């Protein structure tokens, strides 16, 4: 081991000059600080949904939460690949990718494997896969702009796109996350808040059935705080789902008018 | 996973319902755990953990690097898991990659805490050598050698054991360099600093089969699960991370119940693991 | 660089014709049909065998013999410097092929038509001679799986540095760039099944070096036989005979 002891000066690593200092507002002992966008701690960003964003897809949806902009298209149900074995229930294939311009630093625009598998796990419990045996439903999510809480937005938007595609669901899936700063819980964190959070909790649920399909916690949490965070998320997702539902109704109304 | 017959499925489910599983365990009993440390000589620390038919190896390598500009007072830790095809033929080629990513992400979530570094099981500030300039980068690698269910718990235990086996070379900063230069350092190859692992959490996975939940599920039992929750719990009985697996929806109150059961189980596991690690290290010294 | 000191000792203190400590353990992976761990000094290799079983890919099925497949993987921590290699790089593809061909030759494939045998070798620690260690581990794993074989194949390497033939090169000696002869040997049939060499060597010296490697193979074979015998005795005892 001692041979490799020379400091790694030979490699050039550009260090971003932005965000070098910690913003002083994120101090856990300070109760009066305001969030960068002026929201209250338990206030979500305004949510905007629109279905039918992509014509070529069987169903699609666009979602905008503050700066987070996401587009999801659903293809299928269509024939599974030949190499796949026979299956008496349908398959779900999810992929989440970022555009190269979605982040402040130009990214690779490649698939985010972690989010893809999370999206899959969040949705598979809500889809009635028995209704389309031997076939595959593809869900492609593209994050146009990353502005914090990307995965929850992707999940909610994907369930709306699935509904738009006419795929049988037990319920719409809504997802909300909270960030933890010291003693405080912040719902629907923006990107800069996410970068300094002490922990986070994300819930994906089907509000009408009152069931959680996915839950992740990072950081150190006491049971009381988990309780509080979960309740906060569940309430918010109930409200979120009504917005999603009204968006679906609206699009259905325009279709019937035509 | 080989297909199970209807009879076998019923046998597993029925056994779990009656609190007597196919291998004679109760619902909340672990299989015997055996820990062996210092199994890979090239690494700074390593351990092999066996839980029944499951066998994993974890290694820790420390390299000097530059701390992140956002956190100049902290070192860096990254976790990678590999699934060897020896464990399961389907892991051949790229077959194991999906599971490997899932395990790596879950482990990072359970052990590394939030973005700000709070709640991390590994004390990142102890890895700093010169603030803002030089720190230790820990590379934790897990390898699944043989798989018989409950890989996440086994990997968590192996990482804990490997970390307590890790000796980080002592570094002497020879000259105080100016603000922009990298300081000159001298890495000792005789003196090692022991790593404090008292804060490293253990991971407990509760697998829900039917209406009951079990710990340390075997591969057969895992194939019957509707969902599973992995909780990492530290010495202070705080949850340090949680991951849900399996697509089926679960009522929120059930999740809270599972968390409290998980905490209870983790205490026993933590004590068992600590004594196993101590025994393994004593063995090694002999 | 001096690889053999004037006193006739190598870098790790061995004599030129001395092998590293070898150790083998049968049944290291409980879920596999056959498995073995093989150590040569610091080189540590795990092999697992699955099969004979149904052929996964129908188009590869052969009606007159079994299909033998092999995959060689190196753990990320197996070498001194940490790196993450993509799977299936050229070196591992080549070694997979070498192991597959060597093992296929000694398995009685015609006895198991329309079936498939998978050999997976995983390098846990690499310190030179991984190729040989992999073949030895695979032999033991195949024997543990109860797959009919003509004979056991054993392998050992030898090199030629500082005008001295050296048995069983370690990593430092291997990377010195000198000739490196790897031999696969069937001890009972007294036949060579695998022969590979890097670099160049005069023919008369080559014969010496190869003979040395063959001697190494024989020594490995003796040890492997002992291990197999012991494990069979254990099985017999478990059965209560």
TrEMBL record, chain A:
It is found in: Cytoplasm; Nucleus. SUPFAM superfamilies: Ribonuclease PH domain 2-like, Ribosomal protein S5 domain 2-like. One of its GO terms (molecular function) is RNA binding. InterPro entries: ExoRNase_PH_dom1, ExoRNase_PH_dom2, ExoRNase_PH_dom2_sf, PNPase/RNase_PH_dom_sf, Ribosomal_Su5_D2-typ_SF, RNase_PH. Residues 1-29 are annotated as: Disordered. Residues 1-18 have a biased composition (Low complexity). The keyword Nucleus applies. Residues 43-167, 171-232 form the Exoribonuclease phosphorolytic domain. GO terms for cellular component: cytoplasmic exosome (RNase complex); nuclear exosome (RNase complex); nucleolus. Pfam families: RNase_PH (PF01138), RNase_PH_C (PF03725). GO terms for biological process: nuclear mRNA surveillance; poly(A)-dependent snoRNA 3'-end processing; rRNA catabolic process; rRNA processing; U4 snRNA 3'-end processing. Keywords: Cytoplasm, Exosome, Nucleus, RNA-binding, rRNA processing. Belongs to the RNase PH family. PANTHER family: EXOSOME COMPLEX COMPONENT (PTHR11953), EXOSOME COMPLEX COMPONENT MTR3 (PTHR11953:SF2). This is Exosome complex component RRP41-like. It comes from Cucurbita maxima.
TrEMBL record, chain B:
GO terms for biological process: exonucleolytic trimming to generate mature 3'-end of 5.8S rRNA from tricistronic rRNA transcript (SSU-rRNA, 5.8S rRNA, LSU-rRNA); nuclear mRNA surveillance; nuclear polyadenylation-dependent rRNA catabolic process; rRNA catabolic process; TRAMP-dependent tRNA surveillance pathway; U1 snRNA 3'-end processing; U4 snRNA 3'-end processing; U5 snRNA 3'-end processing. It comes from the Eukaryota. It comes from Cucurbita maxima. Its main location: cytoplasm. PANTHER family: EXOSOME COMPLEX COMPONENT RRP42, EXOSOME COMPLEX EXONUCLEASE RIBOSOMAL RNA PROCESSING PROTEIN. GO terms for molecular function: mRNA 3'-UTR AU-rich region binding. Belongs to the RNase PH family. Residues 30-169, 199-263 form the Exoribonuclease phosphorolytic domain. The gene is LOC111486098. This is Ribosomal RNA-processing protein 42. Keywords: Cytoplasm, Exosome. GO terms for cellular component: cytoplasmic exosome (RNase complex); nuclear exosome (RNase complex); nucleolus. It is found in: Cytoplasm; Nucleus, Nucleolus. It holds the Pfam family RNase_PH.
From TrEMBL, chain C:
InterPro entries: ExoRNase_PH_dom1, ExoRNase_PH_dom2, ExoRNase_PH_dom2_sf, PNPase/RNase_PH_dom_sf, Ribosomal_Su5_D2-typ_SF, RNase_PH. It comes from the Eukaryota. Residues 18-148, 151-216 form the Exoribonuclease phosphorolytic domain. One of its GO terms (biological process) is U4 snRNA 3'-end processing. Keywords: Cytoplasm, Exosome. It is found in: Cytoplasm; Nucleus, Nucleolus. One of its GO terms (cellular component) is cytoplasmic exosome (RNase complex). One of its GO terms (molecular function) is RNA binding. Its main location: cytoplasm. The keyword Cytoplasm applies. The keyword Cytoplasm applies. Belongs to the RNase PH family. This is Exosome complex component RRP41-like protein. It comes from Cucurbita argyrosperma subsp. sororia.
């Amino acid at each position: 081991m001692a041979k490799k002891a020379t400091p790694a000066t030979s490699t050039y690593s550009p260090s971003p000059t932005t965000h070098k200092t910690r913003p002083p507002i994120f101090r856990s002992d300070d109760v009066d600080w305001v969030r960068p966008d002026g929201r209250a701690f338990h206030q979500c960003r305004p949510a905007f949904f629109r279905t039918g964003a992509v014509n070529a897809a069987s169903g699609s949806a666009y979602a905008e939460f503050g700066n987070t902009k996401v587009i999801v298209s659903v293809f299928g149900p269509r024939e599974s690949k030949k190499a796949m074995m026979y299956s008496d229930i349908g398959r779900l294939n999810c992929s989440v990718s970022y555009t190269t311009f979605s982040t402040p630093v130009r990214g690779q625009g490649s698939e985010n494997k972690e989010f893809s598998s999370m999206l899959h796990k969040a949705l598979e419990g809500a889809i009635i896969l028995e209704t389309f045996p031997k076939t595959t439903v593809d869900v492609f999510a593209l994050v146009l702009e990353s502005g914090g809480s990307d995965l929850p937005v992707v999940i909610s938007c994907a369930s709306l796109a699935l509904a738009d595609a006419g795929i049988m669901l037990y319920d719409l899936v809504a997802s909300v996350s909270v960030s933890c700063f010291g003693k405080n819980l912040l719902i629907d964190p923006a990107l800069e808040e996410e970068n300094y959070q002490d922990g986070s909790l994300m819930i994906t649920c089907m509000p009408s059935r009152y069931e959680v399909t996915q839950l992740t916690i990072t950081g150190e949490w006491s049971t009381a705080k988990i309780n509080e965070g979960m309740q906060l998320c569940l309430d918010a997702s109930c409200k979120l789902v009504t917005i999603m539902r009204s968006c679906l109704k609206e699009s259905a109304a325009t279709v019937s008018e035509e | 996973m080989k297909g199970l017959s209807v009879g076998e499925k019923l046998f597993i489910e029925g056994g779990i319902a009656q609190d007597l599983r196919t291998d004679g365990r109760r619902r909340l009993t672990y299989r015997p755990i055996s820990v062996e440390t210092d199994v890979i000589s090239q690494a700074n620390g390593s351990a092999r953990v066996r839980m029944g038919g499951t066998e994993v190896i974890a290694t820790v390598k420390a390299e000097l690097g530059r701390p992140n500009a956002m956190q100049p007072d902290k070192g860096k830790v990254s976790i990678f898991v590999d699934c060897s095809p020896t464990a399961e033929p389907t892991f051949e080629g790229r077959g194991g990659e999906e599971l490997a990513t899932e395990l790596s992400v879950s482990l990072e979530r359970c052990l590394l805490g939030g973005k700000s570094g709070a709640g991390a099981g590994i004390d990142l500030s102890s890895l700093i050598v010169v603030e803002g300039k030089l720190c230790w980068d820990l590379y934790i690698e897990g390898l699944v050698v043989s798989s018989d269910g409950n890989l996440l718990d086994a990997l968590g235990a192996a990482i804990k054991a490997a970390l307590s086996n890790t000796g980080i070379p002592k570094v002497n900063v020879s000259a105080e360099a100016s603000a922009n230069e990298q300081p000159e350092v001298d890495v000792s190859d005789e003196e090692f600093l022991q790593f404090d692992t008292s804060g490293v959490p253990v991971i407990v996975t509760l697998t829900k089969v039917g209406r009951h939940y079990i710990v340390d599920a075997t591969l057969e039992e895992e194939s019957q699960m509707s969902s599973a929750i992995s909780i990492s719990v530290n010495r202070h009985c705080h949850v340090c991370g949680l991951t849900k697996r399996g697509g089926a929806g679960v009522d929120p109150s059930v999740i809270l119940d599972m968390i409290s059961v998980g905490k209870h189980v983790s205490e026993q596991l933590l004590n068992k693991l600590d004594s196993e690690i101590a025994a393994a290290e004593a063995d090694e010294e002999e | 660089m001096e690889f053999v000191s004037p006193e006739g000792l190598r870098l790790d203190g061995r004599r030129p014709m001395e092998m590293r400590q070898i150790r083998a353990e049968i049944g290291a992976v409980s879920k596999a049909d056959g498995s073995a761990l093989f150590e040569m000094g610091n080189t540590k290799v795990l092999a697992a065998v699955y099969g004979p079983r149904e052929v996964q890919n129908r188009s590869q099925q052969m009606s007159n013999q079994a299909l033998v497949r092999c995959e060689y993987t190196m753990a990320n921590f197996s070498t001194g410097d940490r790196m993450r290699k993509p799977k299936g790089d050229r070196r591992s593809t080549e070694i997979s092929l070498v192991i597959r061909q060597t093992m296929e030759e000694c398995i009685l494939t015609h006895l198991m038509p329309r079936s498939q045998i998978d050999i997976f070798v995983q390098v846990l620690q690499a310190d030179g001679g991984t190729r040989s260690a992999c073949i030895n581990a695979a032999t033991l794993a195949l024997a543990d799986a109860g797959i009919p074989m003509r004979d056991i194949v054993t392998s050992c390497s030898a090199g030629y540095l500082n005008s001295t033939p050296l048995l069983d090169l370690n990593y430092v000696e291997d990377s010195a760039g000198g000739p490196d002869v790897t031999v696969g040997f069937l001890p009972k049939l007294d036949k060579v099944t695998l022969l590979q060499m890097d670099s160049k060597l005069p023919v008369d010296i080559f014969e010496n070096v190869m003979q040395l490697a063959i001697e190494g193979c024989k020594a490995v074979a003796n040890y492997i036989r002992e291990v197999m015998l012991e494990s069979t005795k254990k099985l017999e005892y478990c059965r209560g005979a």
